[in-house]
Amino acid sequence: MDFLQMYTPFQFRGGAEYYHGMKQPVKSGGKSKLRSDLVKRRPKTQTEDRVPIVAIGASAGGLEAFRALLETLPAATGVAYVLVQHLDPRHESMLAELLARSTQIPVIEVKHRTLIKPDHVYVISPGKNMAIEGAALTLSPRSKESGTINMPIDHFFRSLAEAREGGAIGVVLSGTASDGTIGLRAIKEAGGLTFVQDSTAKYQGMPQAAISAGVADYVMPPHKIAEELVAITKQPQRSVHESGSAESHIMESDDYQKIIGELLRATGVDFSHYKVTTLTRRINRRLLVSKTSTPQEYLKFLRVDGKEAESLFNDILINVTGFFRDPSAIHCLIHKVLPQLVQNNHAKESLRIWVAGCSTGEEVYSLAISILEFLGDKSLSIPLQIFGTDLSSIAIEKARRGTYTRSEVGGVSTRRLERIFLKTNGSYQILKDVRDMCVFSTHNLLKDPPFSRMGIVSCCNVLIYMDAILQRRIFSTFHYALAPYGVLVLGKSETVGASPGLFTQIEKKSKVFVKKARAKTGIPPIIPHNAGTSTVPRNSLKKEVNVVAKEGDFQGEADAILLGRFMPASVVINADSDILQLRGDTEEYLKLPSGKATLNLLKMVREEITQLPRPDHARRNQDRHHARPHPPQGPYRRGQPLRHADV
C-alpha cells in the first residue's frame, strides 16, 4: 500500500463533540469574526494614506480615563486616536459629545467607511465591531451567536496590527474582564507598542489581564500615557518599518550584529539565522521602548541594563496563538490521521504528540481536547501524551498552569468550556485530568535532543521567522522524531520546501505532511554556538556545509563534522562494558591501563572519577527499544554531570 493511501477520508460515527461549532473548516473569505490568522493581507499601495493611529480601548470606568488622556494631548500631533468602548447596543451613545468637552481635538462617532484624518478622535458606534481598511474605519454587526462574547477592543486592535504592523500603537484603560489582551499581543507581535493603565484604573480587570499576559510595554496613568504618545510619535524610528527601508542593509551593520551577539552571550540562544525582517522589527521596537535613538545607543543600553536582554529575547519569541486556531488542520488530523494511528496501535501504546514552539499552551490543549473527544471510551486503553516545548520559560509557566482569561478562551465553544474548563475568579483553567496528559518544558530545537517515536509533530508559525539553514535542520529533527508514517503539522504560511525529500503533503488545503519513511536523515545535527563570543558569523556554517556537499553525502558528512566538533565526550559500550565507539574528547575521563591491553570501560576510568554509574543490563534487556536516561551520579567534570543511557 502506498503510504499516502493510509490517510483516506474517515467518517466518525461516534457521539463525541470534537467538532462542535466548526462542522466545516472556516473559510478565509467568509464574513466571520476577524481573526488575524484568517484575514487576507491586503496589498499596500504607495498612495495609501498612512496617518499614524493610536487605538485606545476601555470598558467600565473608561470615560474618566479617556478624559484624563485627552486633556493632556495637544491639539496638533499629526496622529488619529480611535476609541473603542464597551457600549450598550440598545441605546444611542453620548460618548463623543461627552469627550468633546475635554479636548480641543474634534471628536467624531464613526460611521461605515469614515476616512481617517490626523488630529481627530474617532469613537466606535454602539452594537458594532470596527476595523481598519486602508485609510478608512469600517463597521460590521457584532456576532449574535449563542454563547459568543463580543470583544470589540481585541477585534479592532488585531485589525490595526494587521494593517499597520510595526506602526500600530494600542492602549488599554480601565475595564472589567480581559478584552484587549489578545489585541495587544497581536500589536506587539507585529512590532507595535502597547500601553496599559496602572493602579489608577477604576476597574482593574482589563489592565491586570494585559499586565499578567506580559503584553504591556508601558504601565502608567492616562496623563503619562498621553505624554509618552506625543514623545514616541516624534521619534524617527517610528517610520523605519513602514517606509520599507533597506532592512538587509541595516542588519548587516556592525551594531545590529553586535546586538545579536550580545543577546547570544546573555541568553545562550543564537538568533543570527532568524529572518532579517523579524529581527529588524523587534530591535527597532526595543529602541522605541528603551528611548534610544540609534543602534549604537541601544547596544550600550543592552550591555548595562541587566533586564533588557531578557526583554529583547521575549520580544523576539512573542507569538500570537489561540485555542482551535487552525480548524482545517484539526479537521485533517481528526478525519484522516488519528483513525489510522489508532488502527495501527495494536499494542495500545501511548499516542505521542510533540508541539514545538507551543507558546502559552493553547495549541497543546486544543489538540488534547479534540483527540480525547475523538477517542471517547478508547482513551482509557490508549494513553495520550502531548509534549509542549518552547524557548520562553515565561510562556511555559503559563502553559503549565493552564489558566486563561475570557478573551483567551474566545475560540472555545460554550459546551467545551463547561466540560473541560473550571471557572475560577473570572478565569478559566483546564481540568487537572487534561493538564496531566500534557508535559511542558523549555527546549531549544537547535541545541537540545529531540523527542522520538512521535505520531504527530506540530510546529505552527515558528519556521516563518527562520532562514533556510535553520529550517533544514529543524525538518531533519522532526523527521527523526516521528515514528514511521507520522505526520507533521505546520502553520498556514509554512511549507517543507527547505527539505522536500523528507515529507509529503497529505492534502493541499491543510499544512499536514506525512513522513517519508525511506528518507534517511540520521541523528539531527546540532547548530553550534559559542556563548563566549560576541557573535556568530551568519555565513560560517553555510560555507562549511557547501564545501562538504560537493564531496558526496551531504547529510552524513555534515553530521560527522558537527558531531565531532561539538558533541560532549561519550562512549558506546556493549553488554560487557567493552567500548565500541568513542565520541568527543574522552582523555579527561579515560586512560589506557598498564599491563594487558583492554578497552573495558570499567578498567579505563581514571581513579579520580568515583561512583561512575554502571550499566543496568538487566533493565536494558527487558526493554531494548527505549532509551531511559538515568539520574546524574558521580563527580562533575567541566560543569557537567556524568550520565549514561540504556538503549
Quick rundown:
The protein contains 21 helices and 26 strands.
Task: Describe the structure using short key phrases.
single chain; 647 residues; alpha/beta; seven-stranded parallel β-sheet; seven-stranded mixed β-sheet; 21 helices; 26 strands; globular
Verbal overview:
The protein has 647 residues and is of the alpha/beta class. The relative contact order is 0.08. α5 links the parallel β9 (193-197) and β10 (218-220). Helices cover 33% and strands 19% of the residues. The strands form seven sheets. Strands 3-5-2-1-8-9-10 form a seven-stranded parallel sheet, with helices on both faces. It has 21 helices and 26 strands.
SS-based class:
alpha/beta
The total count of helices amounts to: 21
Distance between the termini: 31 Å
Molecular shape:
globular
Radius of gyration: 27 Å
Q: How much helix, percentage-wise, in residues?
A: 25-40%
Give the rounded overall mean pLDDT.
78
The main sheet orders its strands as 3-5-2-1-8-9-10
Sheet with most strands:
7 strands, parallel
Tell me the number of strands: 26
Low-confidence sequence ranges: 1-48, 239-249, 527-553, 610-640
Strand residues, percent: 15-25%
What is the topological layout?
Blueprint: E1 53-58, H1 62-72, E2 80-85, H2 95-100, E3 107-109, E4 114-115, E5 120-123, E6 128-133, E7 136-141, H3 152-164, E8 169-172, H4 181-189, E9 193-197, H5 205-212, E10 218-220, H6 222-233, H7 247-251, H8 254-267, H9 276-290, H10 295-304, H11 308-317, H12 327-344, E11 351-356, H13 362-375, E12 384-390, H14 393-401, E13 403-404, H15 414-420, E14 421-424, E15 427-430, H16 432-435, E16 438-442, E17 454-459, H17 468-481, E18 482-490, E19 503-507, E20 510-515, H18 540-549, H19 554-566, E21 570-573, E22 579-583, H20 601-604, H21 617-622, E23 628-629, E24 633-637, E25 640-642, E26 645-646
Parallel strand pairs: 1-2, 1-8, 2-5, 3-5, 8-9, 9-10, 11-12, 11-17, 12-16, 17-18
Antiparallel strand pairs: 4-7, 6-7, 13-15, 14-15, 18-20, 19-20, 21-22, 23-26, 24-25
Helix pairs in contact: 1-6, 3-4, 8-10, 8-11, 9-11, 18-19
